[in-house]
Amino acid sequence: MSDKKNLPKEEDKPQKEAVVDFENLYKRALADYQNLQKQTAKEKEEFARYVKANLILEFIPIYEHLKTAIAHADEKNHDQWLAGVQYVIKQFEDMLANNGVEVINPLNEPFNPAEHEAVEKEEIEDEKQVNTVAKVVKTGYKIGDKVIQAAKVVVYSEKK
């Protein structure tokens, strides 16, 4: 009689098969999810390389023009050299603008700590000018509302 107790009952077989089926489904779903994670990570990495390559392609002509301008710096005609460098700067500005980058150049504007970094104060007697940007030491940049480099500025302060 004790041998019959250890034998699986016919009614238990469908339940055990269902458990095995669910375990197999779980393992397949987990493997699919892990494969999806790997594929997504690979696609993100590929997209980042693509974006970087496109940005570099925009820099290459500017770099080449700058090298040409430097090569002609020793020539006697400095006006042409200066015009060449100004052209390269214009190319940079156009490329930045085409990529949604805005220049932060706050000269004579009220100091804005969200976009400006005060590196120095300059005392002034005119109270209306207090907390106004006196000088831009380094231009700032932003894309949309996100500041990617704050403008470094000198700010007017009250004369003591």
UniProtKB/TrEMBL annotation:
Any one Gene Ontology BP term: protein folding
Locations listed in the record: Cytoplasm
InterPro entries: GrpE (IPR000740), GrpE_CC (IPR013805), GrpE_head (IPR009012)
The protein's name: Protein GrpE
Role summary: Participates actively in the response to hyperosmotic and heat shock by preventing the aggregation of stress-denatured proteins, in association with DnaK and GrpE. It is the nucleotide exchange factor for DnaK and may function as a thermosensor. Unfolded proteins bind initially to DnaJ; upon interaction with the DnaJ-bound protein, DnaK hydrolyzes its bound ATP, resulting in the formation of a stable complex. GrpE releases ADP from DnaK; ATP binding to DnaK triggers the release of the substrate protein, thus completing the reaction cycle.
SUPFAM superfamilies documented for this protein: Coiled-coil domain of nucleotide exchange factor GrpE, Head domain of nucleotide exchange factor GrpE
Gene: grpE
Entry similarity comment: Belongs to the GrpE family.
Keyword DNA damage among record annotations: no
Superkingdom assignment: Bacteria
GO molecular function ontology, one term from the record: protein-folding chaperone binding
